[in-house]
Amino acid sequence: IMWSALEEAARILKDPLPRAVIVTGPPGGAFCAGMDVHPDNPQIQDFSAAVSEHDVDTARALLLRIRRAVDALASLPVPLIAAVNGIAYGGGAELAMRCDMRVMDPDAVICFSEVRMGLMPDWGGGVALRRIAGPAICAELILTARKVRADEALALGLVNRISPPGKCLEAAREMADTITQNGPR
User: Fold this and answer.
1) Nearest-angstrom CA–CA distance, 30 and 11
2) Looking at CB atoms within 10 Å, which of 57, 85, 99, 101 has the fewest?
3) DSSP for 122-171, written as a single string
4) Over the stretch 100-157, which tens digit does the pLDDT of each residue have?
């Protein structure tokens, strides 16, 4: 499961701790499409049942499980760079915002899509977005689920730079290499 994989990756990265970490999606794919909200997903079934039955504890447990996994990665004490190489929707947009820096492919798109399903960002990305873009932009992007393309993301300060087409990971590596050339403290 993705949450266990994120926690395991964070655990592995702690020893030995690298100088920088890059988070990206597969070549030619999505950066991260967020959580699979298809009704056949057992987690969604459990969450939906908990909401229907007003079972706050079960719903909270699922959300905390997700948040713990993302927090484990985001709390690594090294620069975390998102190489947003494709769509970053919902939790994927949140994951990108939880990183310290973001490089975005010109064809990538960021969208806080949770509101379309009656949800709000719960991976910590809403808080991160508010710090990055300010309260008005944060409210607009979260409440409208508007798709943000690379040029606008750069103008809004959501990303640090736009890579050449298809070179997002390479641009993130260049950024990481520049960082690691500096003193380790």
Assistant:
1) 24
2) 57
3) -SSHHHHHHHHH-HHHHHHHHHH---EEHHHHHHTTS-SEEPSTT-HHHH
4) 999 999 999 999 998 887 778 888 899 999 999 999 999 999 999 999 999 999 999 9
